[in-house]
Amino acid sequence: MLMRQCRPLIFEVFYPSLLIILGALIMSLSLRANNITTDIKLSDFPVHQEFSYAEYSEKVSTENSEQVVNGFFNNDVFTPIHREFDQNGNLRYQFQKFDELLFANAKVDQTYGSAYFREIDIKNTTNTYDVLTFLDISSHTSLSYFTDFMCNALLRHSTGDPELTLNLSYGSYPRSKVIDQWLTTTMAIMTVISFSLAVGSITSAIAANIVIERNETVKHQQIISGGSLFSYWTSIYFVDILKFILPASSFIIITYAMDFEVKYGWLLLILQVIAILPFTY
Amino acid sequence: MSLIMFAFQMLQNNSRYIEILKWVLRFQPGFAFCNGIVQLIMYGSIPLLEGDIYSLEMVGGDILFLILVTPLYCFILYIIESNKCSWSSPNHSNEELDLDEDVLDEERRLDHSISSDYQVRVKNLHKVYNDRGIKKVAVKELSFGVQYGECFSLLGVNGAGKTTTFKILTGEIAPTRGKVHINGLNVLDSNDLARARKFIGYCPQFDALFNGLTVREHLEFYARIKGVVPHMRKDVVRRKLRQIDLLEYEHSKAYHLSGGNKRKLSVAMAMIGNPPIIFLDEPSTGMDPKAKRFMWSVISNITTLKKKCAVILTTHSMEEADALSTKLGIMVNGNFKCFGTVQHLKSKFGNFYEIEFKTSLPSESEAQEVVNHTNFGNDSIVTEYNLDQVL
């Protein structure tokens, strides 16, 4: 019976398998993406941060940026590193270099700090601090550390007391339930579309086979020749179940390989295979 | 559907109607599956989601329905398949038909017979198709009987009712009324039909072949269906291949066969296992003259030599009916216009003689001389325009 039509196997097995794999991957993405929890306690954050600073400043009046960062960094947490990307002040070039530095370091150490103090200009005459910094906003800790550092640095510098510390805690606000639900819904819809197309592809190919057999009187000839309806449908049922083995096993392997929290999706898939075939017939 | 429901649910959370609709839609396995996957993703993604994931309101309901609908749909399939041929109406026709005396004689013979007297006994078969309120009578009060050793041809133009009669005989469709017995078994009864089919070999009008199977595999498949015992199967298939002249194609896939060879294979499939009753629906369609005559000799042999087989065939070709039939019925508008043996019909309705001869290409005058010496009359004048027809 498996040999009755070979070409439809592409749509009955291979194409649905690919869709099932795609759906399972989307499913895993949705589950994994939402498993990242953001703790707002600073103690849980990675503490070591490297901040870069440039010596160059066109507007230095009394002190340059190096004096500020060296004087007020807490070296247990922050490591200031002097980097001069461009002596000529080409801003575009500095962006590029900073970006390259970030991603090069992020591959090695994901806690790598992501602030580049290009210019700190302290104007004693007007009691103002002009700070120009590049921040990598893709690092979810950089913003809070930068703010913490800047507040403390400026506080100590302005008061002249190197022991004075302002303890600030920041954290990203957790995604609300509604937002989370919408995000998950999007992923769920994509997963279900993928699964539906896969299952739909198999069942429509199976239905097409049955219609062809009926139109071409293949089934009728078998029955008239003495074959029993029970044998006919049972053989077709088991052959069609075989067609689901590759897509279903792909799904099961992926769910276990990805270590989903809810692993019983395979139960639904298997039950659905068993149920949808008589429905299609 | 599950996505639409899901969107509705997002827009109108906790709506009672959506919940009810979801329970109804769970009868569709695709919906139950997709809904379950959505629930699993939502539950896995949102730790704050309340409730047990396997409760009936969540994935548990989908799992339950998937388990329940499987036997339900199997049962529905069983009902549809097993009951479709069991309906018949006891009504009788009031329509007066202008029937030929031979047709009425056949009806009278059947009236005085019992179902087991004939291998195929058809009595007052009537079929009306209802096409959107328009009733079309396909078969009108058809009666005939076929015994072992007989080859009965249903002859007629397209739409005469031949194929409908065949479909009723094979149990594909139910008649509006009438009786059909095969080997004494009433084919309108589903239990008898299954038993009657054990005696039937059937060659459909269009070749019902599996493109991926070879000629031998087709015959082995049907030998299994016919119940040929395993140790004899190989021999039976080989003999059938030789009988139908398909031995050289035994390992060719059906897809690669010519139209004529496909037809031969269909006939071989009908004949394998030596069924006592064979239905052939236009068996020689698409065959070249040589293959056609070979096929006729095969059919004729199984009918007449062993006298253990009744053959019913449909055809458009008078020549085929003449070559094969021991009796024939010419169908017009659902009933027999005439009925009887070939010789009887020729004697009754034949006003002309038809002569067929083969010769090397003669001149016009030589051909005229041949015609003149036949003594069948002087009406046939051979000219250069009809020389080809005469030849």
Give me the secondary-structure topology.
The complex is a heterodimer of chains A (281) and B (391).
Chain A lengths: L8 H27 L13 E5 L11 H8 L5 E5 L8 H18 L6 E9 L4 E8 L6 H18 L17 H39 L2 H7 L4 H15 L1 H13 L7 H16 L1
Parallel strand pairs in A: 1-2, 1-3
Antiparallel strand pairs in A: 3-4
Helix pairs in contact in A: 1-5, 1-8, 2-4, 5-9, 8-9
Chain B lengths: L1 H10 L4 H10 L3 H17 L13 H25 L17 H11 L8 E12 L2 E13 L4 E6 L5 H8 L7 E6 L2 E2 L3 H7 L3 E4 L11 H12 L3 H14 L15 H13 L5 E5 L7 H17 L4 E6 L2 H7 L2 E6 L2 E6 L1 H8 L14 H9 L14 H4 L1
Parallel strand pairs in B: 3-8, 3-9, 6-7, 7-8
Antiparallel strand pairs in B: 1-2, 1-4, 4-5, 9-10
Q: How many separate structural domains of chain A?
A: 2
The profile of the biggest β sheet of chain B is:
6 strands, mixed
Question: What structural class do the secondary elements of chain B suggest?
Answer: alpha/beta
**CA radius of gyration of chain B:** 30 Å
- Shape summary of chain A: rod-shaped
Largest interface: A-B, 56 and 64 residues
Topology-level CATH name of the largest domain in chain B: Rossmann fold
Shape of chain B: elongated
Helix content of chain A: 55-70%
- State the end-to-end CA separation of chain B: 70 Å
| Biggest sheet overview of chain A | 4 strands, mixed
Q: How much is the average pLDDT of chain B?
A: 78
Features:
heterodimer, A: 281 residues, alpha/beta, 2 domains, four-stranded mixed β-sheet, rod-shaped, B: 391 residues, Rossmann fold, 3 domains, six-stranded mixed β-sheet, four-stranded antiparallel β-sheet, 15 helices, 44% helix, 17% strand, elongated
